[in-house]
Each structure stands twice: as structure tokens, then as C-alpha cells.
Design brief:
Length: 517
């Protein structure tokens, strides 16, 4: 008989080798006469995580968000369609992988069993040349995951395997942070793959999908970030590459419940309130200028994107020291990207997956059929007999002509889903954005850490160096909790326990092989 799993293991996931990072020891909650105050600037995942951990331990938190809604790059907003019905628009599909332990822990505050997430049955990848890959039947536990992918994938032939350079691939077998940056931050993701002599088709179908998840061209992306992704999702974790998605739009499923929870914890949520400056005061606190007034706080969390952080620091000339400010000023954003959502008058084919990664179709990176998983879209499709389809195009050039790119994206959809040629687009929304962080070759040293030269000021976000094997949304959540923990430790209060995938190669034999390189 199998012993019942411990509660902490259930929160982590199925991987028994997931790493636990306990907070500094201390009191469970602040119990002084005057609770400390914190300003959290930014209401995305990182800011929400920081605000949650602080407020739960008795800190008086004010959260500032310049947009009218919470969620940052996962925010949603209402729009009225041409048929008069309401819909929720967003910046597009996001996959909630099972390795996102800390993000999922944040969501459990209002959804303990994560009932508002639902799993998609596969992570299919299609190439325009006709090759198809899938992770549905690939074993989840390394190294069988990699061996199973190679055995099942049509992109690997015997001749391809014989011409690969196994020595160049050795860093994949034992990924550690920050060592991987010392090894590979000076190399582009594209050049690293070229050195391995990975089969061209597999290069496009597998690794390029990973690298473009950073909204960047592989020639611009640090190989260290891509290799870390490979560790998190493939060789380092037994959670596999399947994922969950919210069963309703982001505000309904995620942020409105969390906003209610934070309000119950006493958090003052100030949406639609941009912060103009944050200045240190003689007593060690900070003055936050927002909404034509200044307010004093004991500490501050800057949970902003690259452009927002750079701008705020530039407008707050006494924050940090000169070296820190110069690094912040050098931060760069990833190229612009396009999200097109189309409301069609007829359904796509019944066998179309909810999410499909694509390569070789021009600028099209993936296709989502929203009614396959999202309740709002499903209700619209059921009422009208149509489909709601979303298209993503990452890393578009600065000179891209918007109308032309939007038209090309629809033409590429017709190649992937020929039945859509006969459909009429009854409504459409196009979101052009350029606010994701870029992790360029050689840029790791410029990225901020959670701690700053001022012990009362911390930084959070997916651009932050955490020293942990996390990326994307999970890096945002993890850094937010780390920022809260750093402040709580100053007051002798214990913070949030964190989890990550294993912080090194899972197998001693594979770690030994990696050292040969």
C-alpha cells in the first residue's frame, strides 16, 4: 500500500525531488504596536505575490497599479463585440505548467484545489513541412523524458543522431544557477543549437518554441536562458511538458478572487494609479509620489517590467547607488509581438487542439482555439455556432506594418487550419505589445537582483535574478515572494516557503558526464 503524500508534496506536485527553500526563521506574524508599511509598485504576478506574503504576516500594504485592472501581462479587460455581446480581451494565451509551484501556491489562496485551472491533453508542435511532434505520450521523468521524445519524434532519424555533437550538449545534463550563466550567457541560443548539430527540424519544433517563449529571436537570446528552460521543463523536472489553463478569462478565474482575498487582508489596492517617483527619506523609509500626492512608507517593492523599472528609477534620482542605477538603465525589452483574436462565424475542425505550437509558417508562433478550454469563449461559440481563435506572432521587427502583419497572420492561420478559409471574421482584436524583458547574450550581469543597495527597497519581476531555476511567470511569482521574505526578515518575521524544480541534474551519472565537458 502506498503511503499518503505529505501536504507539502501535494503542493509541490508529483516530483519527489522538487527542492524546498525555507524562509529565514522568525515569528509567524508581525506583533508590534505599529505594523510596518510597504508600498508595492506594480500589480502583476510579482507585485501580487509580494503583497500577499507581506499582508498575510501583518504588514500594511498599499499596492499601486497604473492600469485599471490587476494581472500585469495577464490582465484582462472588457470589450463589446459587433453582435452586442460582451467579451474579455487579454494579451493572450499563457500556459500554467505543473512546475510553477510558487505561482500555483499564490493561486491556491483563493482556489485551494486549483479547480479554476484545467489541463490540456497535449502540447502539439507542427512544422509547415508536415512534421508533427507531441508530448502527450512522452514519459515525464528524466532521463526517460528525453529518450522517449527522441524515440517518438519524427524529427530524429538515425543519421541525425549520428551527426550530433554530444560533447557540446553536455551542459544540458547538469544545469545549475548561476553556473549556467557563467558557462553560456555569452552564447546565443541559436549558436548553441548549431554547436550541438541538432537536427534542423527538431531545432525548429522543440528548442525554437522554447526560445521564442521569451518573445525573442534565438539569435538575440542568451543560450543560458534557453538551457535553463530545457532543465525546468524537460531534463530537470518530472512534471513533464503538459500544462493547465484558466477555465475562464484571467480576471474572473485569477485576479478578481485574489483582489478580494487581499482586500480581506487589509491591502489598499490602488488600480489606475501610476507612480511617478519613489524617493528615500532620512528615516530609512520612502516617499511614493502618485495621484498628485506623496505618501510615506517604511519599505518599498518595485515590481515593474523593464521599461517601467528603468523609467521609475530615472525619475527617482536618489534611489540606489550609481552602479545599480546604471545597470537598471541598460535593461532592454524584447521585440514587439502581436496577439490577434478572431471571432469566426463557423467552427474550426473538431480535431483542432486547444493549443498548437507552430514553426515554418512565417511569423505565426501558435494557435489557440479558446472554446476548447475557456468558458466565456465556449458560451459565445455555442450561441453563435462559431469559433474564437487566437494567433500569436513573437519578435516582430520594429519596421513591421501593423495592418500587413495582421493580414499575414490570418493567411498563416488558413495554412494551418484550411477550414478557416471559408469562415467570416465577425469581429477581431489585435494587441501590439513590447513590454517583455529581453535576456540578451551577455546581459545577465545587468539584471537586478531582489535586493538593492538600500535594504528597505527590493525588486521583483520576471527580469530579476533569483539564483533559482525558475523562468517566465514562475520567476515573477518566486521573485515577489523573495522580495517579501527579504523585508520580513528585517522585522524578524518568517516569510513564504518556496519550491523549485531540482537545482542540478537529476542523475549522478549524467552529472558526471556533464563534468567531462
Amino acid at each position: 500500500m502506498t503511503a499518503p503524500r505529505r501536504p507539502d508534496a501535494a503542493r509541490r506536485g508529483r516530483d519527489r525531488r522538487a527542492r524546498t527553500i525555507p524562509p529565514a526563521p522568525g515569528a509567524p506574524r508581525f506583533t508590534g504596536d505599529r505594523p510596518p508599511t510597504t508600498a508595492v509598485v506594480g500589480g502583476g504576478i510579482a507585485g501580487l505575490a509580494a503583497a500577499t506574503a507581506l499582508a498575510e504576516r501583518g504588514v500594511r500594504v498599499t499596492l499601486y497599479e497604473r492600469e485599471p485592472t490587476l494581472g500585469g501581462r495577464l490582465a484582462g479587460w472588457r470589450t463589446t463585440l459587433s453582435d452586442g455581446s460582451g467579451a474579455t480581451m487579454s494579451r493572450g494565451f499563457h500556459a500554467f505548467f505543473r512546475q510553477y509551484y510558487n505561482l500555483r501556491g499564490l493561486l491556491r489562496r483563493t482556489d485551494p484545489r486549483l479547480d479554476r485551472l484545467r489541463g490540456l491533453p497535449d502540447y502539439p508542435l507542427w512544422h509547415s513541412g508536415g512534421l508533427r511532434d507531441s508530448f502527450r505520450h512522452v514519459p515525464r521523468t528524466p532521463p526517460w523524458s528525453a529518450l522517449g521524445f527522441v524515440a517518438l519524434s519524427p524529427t530524429f532519424g538515425l543519421r541525425d543522431l549520428l551527426r550530433m555533437n554530444p560533447v557540446a550538449a553536455l551542459p544540458l545534463l547538469d544545469v545549475r544557477v548561476p553556473d549556467v550563466y557563467t558557462q553560456l550567457d555569452g552564447v546565443s541560443a541559436h549558436d548553441f543549437l548549431e554547436s550541438i548539430r541538432f537536427p534542423e527540424a527538431a531545432h525548429h519544433l522543440a528548442f525554437e518554441v522554447f526560445s521564442r517563449s521569451f518573445f525573442a529571436d534565438p539569435r538575440q537570446l542568451s543560450a543560458a536562458e534557453m538551457v535553463l528552460m530545457f532543465h525546468i521543463y524537460f531534463l530537470g523536472s518530472a512534471e513533464g511538458l503538459l500544462f493547465d489553463v484558466p477555465s475562464e478569462p484571467f480576471p474572473t478565474a485569477l485576479w478578481e478572487p485574489l483582489a478580494g482575498y487581499l482586500g480581506g487582508q487589509g491591502v489598499d489596492l490602488r488600480t489606475g494609479t501610476p507612480v511617478q517617483a519613489v524617493e528615500p527619506t532620512s528615516d530609512g523609509g520612502f516617499l511614493v509620489a502618485a495621484d498628485a500626492r506623496e505618501q510615506h512608507y517604511d519599505t518599498a517593492v518595485l515590481a515593474l517590467d523593464s521599461a517601467g523599472l528603468s523609467s521609475l528609477v530615472a525619475d527617482s534620482p536618489r534611489l540606489g547607488d550609481s552602479a545599480w542605477r546604471e545597470r537598471i538603465a541598460r535593461l532592454r525589452g524584447a521585440p514587439q509581438f502581436l496577439v490577434s483574436r478572431l471571432w469566426l462565424d463557423r467552427p474550426v475542425a473538431a480535431d483542432r487542439p486547444g493549443f498548437l505550437g507552430t514553426s515554418g509558417y512565417g511569423t505565426l508562433d501558435n494557435v489557440s482555439v479558446l472554446e476548447r478550454f475557456e468558458g466565456e469563449a465556449r458560451r459565445w461559440a455555442s450561441r453563435t455556432g462559431g469559433s474564437v481563435v487566437e494567433l500569436h506572432a513573437y519578435a516582430l521587427p520594429d519596421h513591421a506594418v501593423r495592418d500587413v502583419e495582421q493580414k499575414h497572420l490570418v493567411e498563416q492561420l488558413h495554412q494551418v487550419c484550411p477550414e478557416t478559409r471559408a469562415a467570416t471574421v465577425v469581429d477581431e482584436r489585435h494587441e501590439w505589445r513590447a513590454d517583455c524583458p529581453l535576456f540578451p547574450v551577455g546581459g545577465y550581469g545587468d539584471r537586478p537582483t531582489v535586493r538593492t543597495p538600500d535594504p528597505g527597497l527590493v525588486v521583483a519581476g520576471d527580469l530579476v535574478r533569483t539564483g533559482l531555476p525558475v523562468a517566465l511567470m514562475e520567476r515573477a511569482a518566486t521573485s515577489g515572494f523573495l522580495a517579501a521574505n527579504a523585508l520580513l526578515a528585517r522585522w524578524g518575521v518568517s516569510g513564504q516557503t518556496l519550491w523549485t524544480v531540482p537545482d542540478r541534474g537529476r542523475s549522478a551519472a549524467l552529472r558526471g558526464l556533464a563534468r567531462l565537458g
